[in-house]
Amino acid sequence: MKYIILLLTCFTIQYGLAQDASTYKSTTKTFLEYFNTQDVNAIFDMYTSEMQESMTKEGVSNFINGCYGQFGSIKNITFIETAEGIYSYEVAFDKAVLAMDLQLNADGKISTIQFQEL
Q: At what angle do helices 49-71 and 2-36 cross, to 10 degrees?
């Protein structure tokens, strides 16, 4: 009986992790598309309401336009690791390669996004 419960628990956890990975993959793909088309409104809508309040649409516009001007478009986003609920990626732009930390809330909205040098 213990083994059946353990097996069911493992499947449940694995399903939850796969669901998270799928959500993150979809979000990074969508972010790449919106970033490359400079669709600030769509990117702003991807943020949680808390992020929208702290960043404001003007702040997001400055962030996106500044990154696009400095680094160019995003060529690809490659998953690196997950640590403490934050997914880390390598982001290859036209002119640079940066690390991106990303965290989504339960609704799949961006609650944390940060770029930094590798």
A: 50
